[in-house]
Each structure stands twice: as C-alpha cells, then as structure tokens.
Design brief:
- By secondary structure, the protein is mainly α.
- It contains twelve helices and no strands.
- It is elongated, with a radius of gyration of 25 Å.
- Mean pLDDT is 77; it is low at 1-15.
C-alpha cells in the first residue's frame, strides 16, 4: 500500500510497533513497568534518543499499560482474557449458590496466571458474579449461608484472595462481606464466626437485644477502644470491630 511513496520503512516500523504493543499487553505488570522505564531512559540518553516512530510507540505502550491497570482493578478476569493472558473467563451462573464451589474449580486453575499478570492477589469472581452470589446467599437460612461461605473460603484458600472476594461483596452488602472475610474463622468455642456475624445482624435488626451505641460507653466504643492498634491496616481494624459488634449482638440475644 505504501510502495513507491517513500514511506515504506515508516509504515513497516509502525506495523512492527503495533504488533509489539499486542505482545506488551501479555507481560506481567512489573515487566511492563520495567520496559516502559527502559524506553523512557532511551529518550533522554545522549547519543540514543528516539525517532518519531519510537516516540509514538512509547506513548502507545504507556497508554496501554495505564488502561490495563485501570481495567484490571475493575475486573481482572475479563481484562486478562482480553489481553490474551488466559484463554477465557466464562461467567458463573450464580443462580444456584450451592453450585458455586464446583464452579470455582475452573477459576482456581487459572488464578495464578492472572495474579502473576496483575502483580497482586485477586478475587476468583468477577464483580457482578460476587454481587449475584451475595443476593442468592441472602435467600438461604443463616446456618446454610454460613456453611456456603465457609466452603467458598476453604476452596479459595488464600487469605488475600478471600479478602478480595469479601471486598467485592462488602461493596454491596457490608455485613455479608464481613461474613465472607471471616468465613473460615471460628471462635475459641469452635463456633463459626460467619454464622455469628449473620445472626448478630439479624438479632439487632429484630431488636431482640438492647444496645447502647454511645461513643465511649456503648458496645462499639468499648470494642473499638480494645481493638485499635491491634492491626496495621485501618480497614482490617474497622472490619474486625464491626464483626465483633455483630457477634456481641448475637451473644447479647441469649
């Protein structure tokens, strides 16, 4: 197409750059960052520099990297699929919550590749799947809901992955997100923490316990005073305080 125009080399170089951008998208996040850093260094290195084609290429890969990072934060699975990191990411049918644990098997086989690419631990679910799961879990009796969440936590295994899934749920349903976060935990008496959280929420909703919510003298204030400084992360502290508050609600019911 460019033959005889004098632009043959420029067009060939541009096509090569475009192919390189495609391959760039499959690189892990840290390697993409290192590659961009090297290209930027060439720009300012005396005696090296870059021509217009290379300059355009650098801008392309920077834009590609920024888009990949942004999209991966929203949905790591569909972004990894679009980038060619994994072959596919079929959506869950979350209408049957009991089938979710079996469906997680496929995601767990591919999760390491996605995490290597993103550079961080990810939830095994896409955001809309987690939201649908939460709605379905809410239709179950509390003991069954807690059992299902515990099974999901056991299947996912890794605490950071469970936390990522819990955050997806928490964004739509705070208490259920807490129950997911503590799905594999038990009290010193061997009771499931997730079930206590859910039962505590229900007891408070039903007004079966009388609470004193005063900042310093109420349950929440007392719990917060005891727990502040226990965790290095404020979000983790807040989650633990809320979970303890709900569990106290369940204990106070009896």
């Amino acid at each position: 197409m460019a033959a005889g125009t004098g632009l043959e080399n420029d067009v060939a170089n541009l096509f090569a750059a475009q192919r390189a951008v495609g391959g760039f998208a499959t690189l892990p996040a840290d390697k993409r960052a290192a590659f961009i850093e090297r290209q930027e260094a060439n720009r300012v290195t005396p005696g090296v520099g870059v021509d217009k084609i290379a300059d355009k290429f650098i801008e392309q890969i920077k834009a590609t990297d920024a888009k990949l990072r942004s999209d991966a934060k929203e949905n790591a699975w569909t972004t990894a699929q679009a980038a060619g990191v994994i072959r596919d990411a079929p959506a869950f049918n979350a209408t049957d919550p009991q089938a979710v644990i079996g469906l997680l098997d496929y995601r767990m086989k591919n999760i390491a590749a996605v995490e290597n690419w993103t550079g961080s631990k990810v939830s095994p679910m896409q955001p809309d799947e987690a939201e649908k799961l939460a709605r379905q879990v809410r239709t179950l009796p509390i003991d069954q809901a807690a059992t299902l969440l515990s099974g999901i936590g056991a299947k996912v295994g890794d605490a950071e992955r469970v936390a990522a899934l819990a955050k997806q749920i928490h964004d739509k349903d705070g208490t259920l997100g807490l129950a997911m976060l503590y799905a594999s935990a038990q009290t010193t008496q061997g009771r499931a923490t997730a079930e206590l959280v859910l039962r505590g929420e229900q007891a408070l909703k039903d007004k079966r316990v009388v609470t004193d919510n005063a900042g310093e003298t109420g349950w929440r204030g007392t719990i917060a005073k005891e727990m502040r400084g226990v965790y290095n992360n404020r979000e983790a502290e807040d989650a633990a305080i809320q979970a303890a508050y709900l569990i106290t609600g369940e204990d106070g019911r009896r």
